[in-house]
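In response to a reviewer's request, we include the raw inputs and outputs for one of the modeled complexes. The two entities were modeled together in a single run.
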Amino acid sequence: DAKTTQPPSMDCAEGRAANLPCNHSTISGNEYVYWYRQIHSQGPQYIIHGLKNNETNEMASLIITEDRKSSTLILPHATLRDTAVYYCIVFNTNAGKSTFGDGTTLTVKP
Amino acid sequence: GAVVSQHPSWVICKSGTSVKIECRSLDFQATTMFWYRQFPKQSLMLMATSNEGSKATYEQGVEKDKFLINHASLTLSTLTVTSAHPEDSSFYICSAGAGGPYEQYFGPGTRLTVT
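The model returned the following structure tokens for the whole complex.
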């Protein structure tokens, strides 16, 4: 399984954009990049996913580099409720499973 | 969106007893469900992959005789922790696959405390 590397923690001011990076240098061609977040003592919440094109939905944008070795999750206007642990994972379609890394703890401050 | 429920949300049991946790996909059929375990301040650790109508596939180091998984229908998977011990106390989370491009929808988790 492709391994992901994320910074352990980040701070962001409320109302500003939060940019969360993720390295996945060993990703293979048929593996998708997924982002989830987990608020304390809850199950992870799906945010967005992509293969090679940039993606946007009502929650966030996902920017994937051309070589697919890294990606950035963008929360355009962070709120206090966005404080959570954000996980970038790579889904292995052959194995049919994904492996969670350590994630980034994002703290949005007033 | 796809909703996954878990029952119970929390349970306290005595050492040596067995506990069953249910995972249900409420508004979609899930051919595959996943079971994770999460210790405090740690990431999710995949325990097993459960496919409807077949035996679960366990990750290395997970005792299949201790963590019994049954995926009897397209909307229900159960995890039974047999002869629970205090070290089994953890947050157990299931997820269900809704199809490709593969998305996992997670349940709210079950907090197990073994005394």
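As requested, we also summarize the result in words. The longest strand of chain B covers residues 90-97. The mean pLDDT of chain B is 91.
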